[in-house]
Design a protein that fits this description.
There is one protein chain. The protein contains 8 helices and 16 strands. By secondary structure, the chain is α+β, with helices and mostly antiparallel strands. Strands 6, 7, 8, 9, 12, 13, 14, 15 and 16 form a 9-stranded mixed beta sheet that branches. Strands 2-4-5 form a 3-stranded antiparallel beta sheet, with no helix packed on it. The radius of gyration is 20 Å and the shape is elongated.
């Protein structure tokens, strides 16, 4: 009889990541056959697992991998009871998915969502040094000293940030590539140098570029996912990408051309950076 740790079961069922599952278990919100399990409990085929009283079934659904351009004001949480402006309700995807990592409420840009709990740990694992690229605007002119110090590392949160690539884009704008994910890292780094972030956009995660308007999502392609697997060779590979599905019904080539022609900014950043109204996928 094959036994599975409860956090892995919830992850493989597409309910949440293992880390989030541990929190649910610790909060007493998970039951196995009507009883609250201890951390590390294993479940067997036929066991009934519930979260908040609702049964969670591992139906071995096809994995989903989504790239989403998060608008400012949307919170990266799966708990609609805690935050009404949460990312899950905003996207309204027909299957249960959850975000990989976070992006501040005041920030915008690229974030992944999936129902594959295993890929979360692989991408977020600090030792893998996965790159995340941002374009940032601050409240006063940028000096060469600011760029140098940001790149060399800043003392925040009782540590010194890792050395990183920083490039000035304009008087108030710069590009930065991080390989770690401290809480509000870029904002705290700027604050330490007496600068205030007025705009922050994530334009790349690993090999995936931001190429869709604000508020839209698309499926991560098989080629992109294959490269992600190569980047996490020290971890177990995630599933093969599913067959391509229709993009967000509200996003098509005609709209993309219209969007680019009317609202795109000068090619100062490696991303689709036009202004558009946030549009939800209601399919």
């Amino acid at each position: 009889m094959q036994l599975t740790r409860i956090n892995k079961y919830l992850s493989e069922a597409g309910y949440c990541s293992r880390r989030e599952a541990d929190k649910l278990i610790d909060q007493g919100r998970v039951t196995v056959n009507g009883e609250v399990p201890e951390m590390g409990t294993k479940v067997a085929p036929g066991d009934i697992v519930r979260v908040n009283g609702k049964t969670v079934a591992n139906l071995n659904e096809k994995p989903v991998y989504i790239a989403f351009n998060k608008p400012v004001g949307i919170v990266c949480t799966t708990d609609s009871g805690v935050e009404k402006d949460n990312i899950i309700d905003y996207i309204n995807y027909p299957k249960r998915i959850f975000p990989i990592g976070r992006l501040d409420k005041a920030s915008e840009g690229l974030i992944f969502l999936t129902n594959d709990g295993d890929i979360v740990n692989k991408i977020l694992r600090a030792s893998n040094n996965h790159e995340k690229e941002y374009v940032v605007t601050v409240n006063k002119p940028i000096s060469s000293t600011f760029i140098d110090r940001m790149g060399m590392g800043i003392s925040i949160l009782d540590t010194v940030t890792k050395k990183c690539e920083v490039e000035r884009l304009g008087n108030y704008d710069f590009r930065i590539v991080l390989t770690q994910g401290l809480n509000r890292q870029i904002r705290r780094m700027c604050e330490a140098l007496d600068y205030e972030v007025t705009s922050l956009k994530r334009v790349r995660i690993m090999n995936v570029l931001l190429d869709i308007p604000v508020g839209e999502w698309r499926d991560i392609t098989e080629e992109e996912l294959s490269t992600i697997n190569e980047m996490v060779t020290n971890s177990i590979k995630t599933y093969k990408a599913p067959e391509p599905k229709k993009r967000n019904p509200k996003y098509d080539e005609e709209k993309a051309e219209k969007f680019n022609s009317k609202d795109s900014k000068p090619k100062e950043t490696p991303t689709f950076s036009g202004k558009s109204k946030s549009r939800r996928n209601k399919s």
